[in-house]
Amino acid sequence: MINGEQYLERIKSYSREIYVAGKRVDYDHPNIQPVLRAFAFTYDLALERGYSVHSDLVGKEVNVLNAYYSSPEELMKRYDYQRELSMRLATCNYRCTGADAINAFAAVLKGEERERFLRLLREIQENDYACTSALTDPKGDRSKRPKEQKEMYVRVVEERDDGIIVEGAKIHQSGAFAADINFFLPGQTFKEGEEEFAIAFALKPDDEGVKYILQNTGVQAKQREGGEFEYGNPFGDRTTCTVVLDRVFVPWERVFVYRDLKAVRNLLMTFANSHRCVGAACKAGFIDSMTGAASLMIKANGLEKVSALTSRLGEMSAVAESAYAIAIGSAVKGESVNGTWLPNGLMANAGKIAGVDGFIKAMRHLAEIAGGIPGTAPSEFDLKSEEVGEYVERFLRGSENFTAEERMRIIKFIEFWLMSSHYLGALHGGGSVSAAIIFLQYMSDIKSKEEAVRKTINL
Amino acid sequence: MINGEQYLERIKSYSREIYVAGKRVDYDHPNIQPVLRAFAFTYDLALERGYSVHSDLVGKEVNVLNAYYSSPEELMKRYDYQRELSMRLATCNYRCTGADAINAFAAVLKGEERERFLRLLREIQENDYACTSALTDPKGDRSKRPKEQKEMYVRVVEERDDGIIVEGAKIHQSGAFAADINFFLPGQTFKEGEEEFAIAFALKPDDEGVKYILQNTGVQAKQREGGEFEYGNPFGDRTTCTVVLDRVFVPWERVFVYRDLKAVRNLLMTFANSHRCVGAACKAGFIDSMTGAASLMIKANGLEKVSALTSRLGEMSAVAESAYAIAIGSAVKGESVNGTWLPNGLMANAGKIAGVDGFIKAMRHLAEIAGGIPGTAPSEFDLKSEEVGEYVERFLRGSENFTAEERMRIIKFIEFWLMSSHYLGALHGGGSVSAAIIFLQYMSDIKSKEEAVRKTINL
Amino acid sequence: MINGEQYLERIKSYSREIYVAGKRVDYDHPNIQPVLRAFAFTYDLALERGYSVHSDLVGKEVNVLNAYYSSPEELMKRYDYQRELSMRLATCNYRCTGADAINAFAAVLKGEERERFLRLLREIQENDYACTSALTDPKGDRSKRPKEQKEMYVRVVEERDDGIIVEGAKIHQSGAFAADINFFLPGQTFKEGEEEFAIAFALKPDDEGVKYILQNTGVQAKQREGGEFEYGNPFGDRTTCTVVLDRVFVPWERVFVYRDLKAVRNLLMTFANSHRCVGAACKAGFIDSMTGAASLMIKANGLEKVSALTSRLGEMSAVAESAYAIAIGSAVKGESVNGTWLPNGLMANAGKIAGVDGFIKAMRHLAEIAGGIPGTAPSEFDLKSEEVGEYVERFLRGSENFTAEERMRIIKFIEFWLMSSHYLGALHGGGSVSAAIIFLQYMSDIKSKEEAVRKTINL
Amino acid sequence: MINGEQYLERIKSYSREIYVAGKRVDYDHPNIQPVLRAFAFTYDLALERGYSVHSDLVGKEVNVLNAYYSSPEELMKRYDYQRELSMRLATCNYRCTGADAINAFAAVLKGEERERFLRLLREIQENDYACTSALTDPKGDRSKRPKEQKEMYVRVVEERDDGIIVEGAKIHQSGAFAADINFFLPGQTFKEGEEEFAIAFALKPDDEGVKYILQNTGVQAKQREGGEFEYGNPFGDRTTCTVVLDRVFVPWERVFVYRDLKAVRNLLMTFANSHRCVGAACKAGFIDSMTGAASLMIKANGLEKVSALTSRLGEMSAVAESAYAIAIGSAVKGESVNGTWLPNGLMANAGKIAGVDGFIKAMRHLAEIAGGIPGTAPSEFDLKSEEVGEYVERFLRGSENFTAEERMRIIKFIEFWLMSSHYLGALHGGGSVSAAIIFLQYMSDIKSKEEAVRKTINL
């Protein structure tokens, strides 16, 4: 297992086509640096805190995010890792979709495709690669089928002896530009006649024709302006990209699903459950971070004795512990499929919903505690300005236990939580709440609940 | 392990002072019969579904509710049992406070008191007794300390060589009148000088001076009027009582805490966490029952194709699975104290809150699905009446797959869910939501969350 | 304008077929007496507080509930009357559907039908009759049209020279059995070919073939057992009935809509908006009552200084004032149709939703404040019993400012709020929340909101 | 009444000290231009839609925001103006605090102070000035009184014959730098001995020693980078500033409250109620804008037929209509104080809460409808880039009825709604929700609600 520094060296050796705000950029760009820091942190934290599991494939310990799990304990270890990463980064760790893909492939693939996948996984584990995956196609007009808007969805456009040519794009993709391996999975199921879309594969940094166009939120605009803490979180906003595949060649060795409608269905459900469940642990960590920030703000304002505020910390803890506990429960009540331990599907989807609701509640508590200042505060540049620095210094002070700058750091961090893309990320990451409800509606054993009632009331 | 029939025989052999609506009654009373059925069902279900754990004390399998747990697995078994009981009974199983007391005593007691307790526990296990516990004292004027209103709280009023005389009352007590063993624990912590209240003990059916005055809700009034299904649930409303102790003698052998402020504190927190956590599993089961009823109502109305209604079943499943998963997570992330495996305190309290919120959401979904009819329907007596039976038969019919009587049974069961004491029971059982929030506020490791933020923002 | 006593005398002179719990009963029945008290109270309060408007039809002041309104001021007067009635009765006043029908007829009817209606209205005003209306048909299998289950819906089955014969039933009807005039309106719109259901008319106490079968909730079972305050509210549970029409003759003079699909559509929307809007004022009054009860409970428990509880009274006031203010806003922003001042439709439907959500929030606040005791308290009969009265007296006492009986009266009143049919009544009265949302979706001027955005972003 | 162009000319003639991101800037700065556009729009809309009232002071029509109101009708006109402004600007109109101050002064001031105020008001009306007010002092350590941290709060530091010297700062101030008149009011009540803070006055553009330091949110960073629609809303983020008063001289003619604790109390409550009530109308307009955006997004995605999404538009309308109706109700049920028509205090505070809750609900509906794309979309610069523009064009297309650019404009506008400072502004504008609840708790007539219950239950 490598450390963050080693990851950074490797990643900077790649020459990818990455675009920010209309221009091609390299890995030193201020919108990319924070993402690299986040990736690097995942490596360092794994070493520091032992977030590894034993892999029979390579006969040694590997990062939790680069393994498929053989037991509830391993799966729980992932959730602990995730919660701590989310608390410490206060943003995306980017590698969780990689782990979801690895586990989905391990649970679903059979035969030759499984062998191919395991060979790649061995390589991943040997090199301690960072992996991500891309799922959502740009759907264009949602009232139409993929084929009616063929240029959009990722699909095979040519079949060769040595591999396939793929085209299309994926949106909402988090951090692929800073990963070693990019998995591509279908973002929905397909019907007969739509086999060209029913593919899953992996790309490597050298593959040609791949372009990454990054999102551009306000936090990212701030990142471009620099400052030490003005953009709130040194790990930056959750940075997604649109990944464009312009006639990209994929060798058969990295094609894991090919024109297989059923495999897509299984893969998608397995990935979704895996991702929704880890999302609950992730939201727990985010809420932990918000809780810490809220507590610091209370202290920076001298409000430790106002129970109407401090009790909100208890409410924030409640939603964090709930989301985390659901992930744990889901791990314990999971099942082994093809040697891979998967979380309980019902609980995973319930966890998605609890995570979203908890995040939104925590956000409101944080905002109520913080007051309006995260929206109205002057900037770090004002604090450090010759002309008005002294005023900002004087009027931004709170409790004497904090300097104005310290209080401003807290304020800017809270601004980050309240005005970044995380609200949307919480809602839609792993699919919408509605999608989770539909899963629960169809997968819950409502029949047995009906039966129980029938027995109770002698029906 | 005995069966329900054996329990019933034993319980009917006791001659307790039980009062309903101002009159002394016996075990055949229509407000008590449903409670006995619920107790009996706990016995039958344990046998049918194997809800037992091995006890070293007696060297055999004992009912899950009569044991303290030595592992997460045993604790999870309890939650499964609880969820199923709640789903099947659609009301209280009455024995869960007994199990909470057993686990709290096992975790907290030491020395001679522990020995006494284990001797009683052995007897309980040998006989497969039904146990309950009583905690809440009538607090009178809440602005005063217990001593300022001495006649209210349960307390020791005389110390003898062979035991103590206790006096006072406990309220909100569920089902003690139908149990073999009644534990009494303090309902709050006490200060120095208040040692007379710092006691815990067990009573048996033959103890003199004990009076049980039952609650009297609308469902219970309906129970007194009979009918086959008019009161909705054959297991009746959750039936609590006020237990009056009029100079009751307790031999030392059954006194487990005596004038010990610290033991009370530990006992109370252990009991509360245990009870709040099982409460989450309980609410999951209640929501299961409501979900089954909602699904039957949709079918009885011919509304299976209205997705705005059926999707609510998915939302109900979400809150049920959340509450249950939190209990499971709590068991896994628990800890062993004095050889007793206790649930994770933070998660237990988070589960309490999730259970309440989930129950209230599910109640609303059920009500939206059911329409107004559970409040406005004619009675079973009208359906069976010569004068208007034919009209009720005609106008209460829904889908042809259900007779009018079948639909009415469903309606009356839903009426039960919406107008029984369960809403209050969900809110206040195991203490209020506010109490859970305060626990979380003080027991959460907010310091480490602050530290995480400090590291992230370089504070 | 008559007083309550005069109403009672008149109503008791009618000999209607009323059924309770399978038996025919008269006006002295304990399930009917509270309803009569509520009706009577509407008369007395109108006199005491001047809830009247001038009617040109009869050239004098008439009860607000027996008039159609010519101005926002008159409509607001109705909302004030409604809020006060709901606060004072803590249950249905039964006459509000009468007022809604009167206003819907006045706004919609034209020509001869309007003349017929005005003649009846004159009679109503002259005699100060109590009026109600019935809308909801028992819909049987909801996947079928009315005609496919012809025996259910109210419909014309024979046309005569002097009038029509109607048959069918209405459910969810509040208090018709204790009113002088029963209006019947369609509960939904109909398609071509379904004209037989497109009728509206009025019945009088002497009409033959009408049967009233009353609901039977737990509160009503309690009412049958008597006691002074055991059933909580002297005005009883909201008492609805199923009204069966067994070949009832209606003279043309009282037929207002006959086989007219369009009139039905207008009538229904006008009635619904009118009823949903007054429902908001009604919920405000209900919440007022719950707020008063909560405040009394706080005092009876000696908890006046616990701000976590008293602040809930502020939250309850917030939802009450919101619901009421929406009704007022709706009156002011209403419109005159055919000389009748109708509330603003969008606001009326928004008020319905705010009323429901507010009611449910207030209910939870009340339950949190009250603690578990409204579900677990002994009965009035226990308090007055020779055997255990002294214990109940002692252990139910709270603050010294309240006797045990006083505290019990408060407790039983809160039990009423938490376990009566009002939760369902709030949700479904005037139609479900979903129906209100659909109205808002289609009637809101979303086009102009889109246009505003287009202008803002230059689209 | 002037138009927007005339306002712009006048405002640009002022040479104020304004700081953005650490540098002094002028009115052409990209963070100020959008604010000027918003101010200008208020002028144009008033002319276009007749948002004026007659002023006896100047004997002609004046802008609704520059008048105190003499009737409910005038107050309602203000709410209509506010709602339309909020819908059209999708951000702050900046002048509403000016109107609140004018009405608070008119209702509270007496004698010479009133005369001074009226003289200024006449000047305001004659010139159609834009007015704002500043209230919140930087409170430093909230556990200390203002005097213990004397340098923070705005206070009088010297009294002269011709006026006073004031010092301190105000935070959270919206738009003062772009207004003609800046009112200063105390942000809290004070105790005896704290008279130095008990002052209220007005500043003009020429006054020396005033510095405006602007907030710096992500939207503002985007504004600095330009683009045609990349920052979402041409009117920009709600732009507040910290106003520093560095020994500013105020002539007596513009001092309206001087060392008067009671006047401060009245002024503050009057201002707060006025501002909270208009805030409800404001939130209605914001929700209108979000609803329009949501509807456009549904269309741009081809999702018009998905009722699970379109029904959310109905829910959004419900909360908008509720908030607006409460403002209207508040106007109607208001009262005349000193010739000024003030909104009903209870309803105003209830409206504040309904506005916040409605805003947060609407935000979630908007986010659920929009999907993740407002967080993950490429930028306008990417769309227009030579290198990747063609890809963005292709993959961002939705329905054929919208170009990629049109869809992107909608997306960026939604990004604005979800990641601007409006969430915080909604929560804290006019004070926190907790403050509104406390007001309701103390000002509601809970006594009369208790009395009503006492009568109902014969207590």
UniProtKB/TrEMBL annotation, chains A, B, C, D:
Keyword Transmembrane helix among UniProt keywords: yes
Sequence ranges assigned to domain HpaB/PvcC/4-BUDH N-terminal in this UniProt record: 4-257
InterPro entries assigned: Acyl-CoA_Oxase/DH_mid-dom_sf (IPR046373), AcylCo_DH-like_C (IPR036250), AcylCoA_DH/oxidase_NM_dom_sf (IPR009100), HpaB/PvcC/4-BUDH (IPR004925), HpaB/PvcC/4-BUDH_C (IPR024719), HpaB/PvcC/4-BUDH_N (IPR024674)
Pfam families: HpaB, HpaB_N
TM spans (from-to): 416-440
Residue ranges of domain HpaB/PvcC/4-BUDH C-terminal in the record: 265-457
Keywords of this entry: FAD, Flavoprotein, Isomerase, Lyase, Membrane, Oxidoreductase, Transmembrane, Transmembrane helix
Keyword match Chaperone: no
Protein name: Aromatic ring hydroxylase
Species per Swiss-Prot/TrEMBL record: Geoglobus ahangari
Record lineage: Archaea, Methanobacteriati, Methanobacteriota, Archaeoglobi, Archaeoglobales
